[in-house]
Amino acid sequence: MSKLTRNSVLSLLLFSLFGCTQGPDYVRPAVESPENWRVDYAAAADTANTRWWEQFNDPVLNQLIDTALRENKDVRIAAARVEEFAARVDIFRSGFYPQIGYDGEGSRNRVSREVYGGRGVNERKYNNYSISANLGWELDLWGRIRRSTEAARAELLAQEENRRAVILSLVSAVATSYVTLRQLDRQLEVARETLETRSESLDLFRLKFRGGVVSELEVAQVRTEYEQAAAAIPPLELQIALTENALSVLLGHNPEDMPRGRSIDELVLPAVPAGVPSQLLERRPDIRAAEQDLIAADARIDVARAQYFPTISLTGLFGYASDALSDLLQNSANVWSIGGSALGPIFTGGRISAQVRASEAVQRQALVGYLQSIQTAFREVDDALVSVQKAREQLVAEGRRVKALDDYARLAMLRYDEGYASYIEVLDAQRFLFDAELQYVAVQGDVYASLVSAYKAMGGGWVIEAQRDADETDFPAVQAGTQPEFAFPKPTRPSGIESDSGYQ
Fold it and tell me: Residue 195 CB: number of other CB atoms within 10 A?
């Protein structure tokens, strides 16, 4: 057999041997997805990949979201975590290249006469100097480094998707909080308008009581309705304050008053996002992150299996050694070596097989987690689309109820003025109308919130653009060993609190 033929056969055998140590490359698992959503919005435009919050046509909301993308702390944490995992990829990838280092040593030594019995030792003290460069290069014959790098790269991509998931949740939270704030503002307006109307009625009935036109019972009934309207205001003011505080934190700020734009009646309803279920696999950051976790877990099985085989490395050394510092760099003082090493297991007490089984179990967990994330996404989208439809239907019904109660209240007042009904009937009608108006505004907020949830559930390509917006601002770094300074706002006295309460 010729030398060329022997080399070819040997290469084929080595390729077969090395190739058998690694499992197959990752293939996306088959996913059973529904053909369509429970609610069909075929006529709607595919707006999931656009900056959907701009459809509200509220510049203030747009500004709040831009601020949140730049200054929200969770976004900055997610960005730093991406940088961390990018560095980890470089750490594992460095194993593909030779590792070159240096070593230097200088010492003065004394030899014990007692060791050598004093024989042959004329001088008990001597010097030793050396300097060298060393090289080590692990041959990745079994794919350990390649698979480790593949796993690290998948983990990096998973962190990228987790970062986009944070941005997705952030934008949705800001939009929902802003809509809630405008809803509460409108409910507070309704409550104050009702309180003002009932205050005028109470003043009128007190005058009538003094004139002997109405009884004290009727005055008490009117006062009861007045107090009911007054009692509805503090909870609304509390909810507004809490919503503003929550929105401030989303913006990365301390609690503060929030600017307002369009009223909830003036906000434009965005289009309902469309898309087939299979598109979620490419749009949802959590699904994409779960798949990258699966890829990483799949690669780590081969990393564990590679421990069955020896670690083969090439080593080299070149340097100088001398007992005199002045002669250290002489040609006669140079030293060198070239070699190779192989280190492999013989008996590990089942450690390697246990690590392989553990890696396989982690891979199965990642697979189930990936499939579960898909099912969760399908459910969330279907829930959101159904919520949009039913919230709209409820809003129409609540609008009709408000109109009917408004007519009822007007007719009840006419009957009272003409002496056909007591004022109790008027009060009942006004009470029902007040509750219906508050509920109508609440359902208005539900419609907008359900649309925001639908866009969040759909995912979308807009997240990548929003991520670029978040990257425009550098977050200030804090030097090691120092603590950041915080400026706490000075408490102010809420309305209705006396000055001796401790507030200023």
Answer: 20
Phi-psi region of 275 (alpha: psi -120 to 50; beta: other; left: phi over 0): left
Q: How far is CA 374 from CA 279, 297, 315, in A?
A: 11, 18, 49
Written as one letter, the residue type at 114 is E
Looking at per-residue pLDDT, the higher value among 255 and 33 belongs to 255
Q: Three-class SS of residue 133?
A: strand
Tell me the pLDDT tens digit for each residue of 215-228. 888 888 889 889 99
Please report the DSSP string for 142-177 in residue order. SSHHHHHHHHHHHHHHHHHHHHHHHHHHHHHHHHHH
Give pLDDT, residue 193.
92
Q: How many residues does the chain have?
A: 504
Lowest mean pLDDT across 2-6, 359-363, 388-392, 467-471: 2-6
Q: How many CB atoms lie within 10 A of CB 385?
A: 25
**What contacts 21, CB < 8 A, 6 or more positions away?**
141, 142, 143, 302, 305, 306, 308, 309
Report the chain's mean pLDDT, rounded to a whole number.
82
C-alpha 433/C-alpha 357 separation (Å) is 67
The confidence score (pLDDT) of residue 86 equals 92
Domains within the chain, CATH numbers bracketed: 23-97+143-308+350-474 (1.20.1600.10)
Range 247-255 average pLDDT = 93
In this structure, are residues 171 and 101 in contact, taking their beta carbons and an 8 Å threshold?
no
Task: Determine the Cα–Cα distance for residues 494 and 227; give it in Å rounded to an integer.
Answer: 21
N-terminal to C-terminal alpha carbon distance within the chain = 100
**Alpha-carbon span 208 to 214, nearest angstrom:** 6
0.85 exceeded by pTM: no
Dist. CA 168–CA 326, nearest whole Å: 67
Backbone torsions φ then ψ of 99, nearest 5 degrees: -100, 115
Question: Residue 442 is encoded by which pair of tokens?
Answer: 């609440």
Most distant CA atoms of the chain, gap in Å = 137
Question: What percentage of residues in the chain have a pLDDT greater than 90?
Answer: 43
What are the beta bridge partners of residue 22?
Answer: none
What are the residues facing 246 on neighbouring strands? none
- The pLDDT score that the predictor gives to residue 36 is 64
Residue 20 Cα distances to 9, 359, 474, angstroms: 17, 18, 48
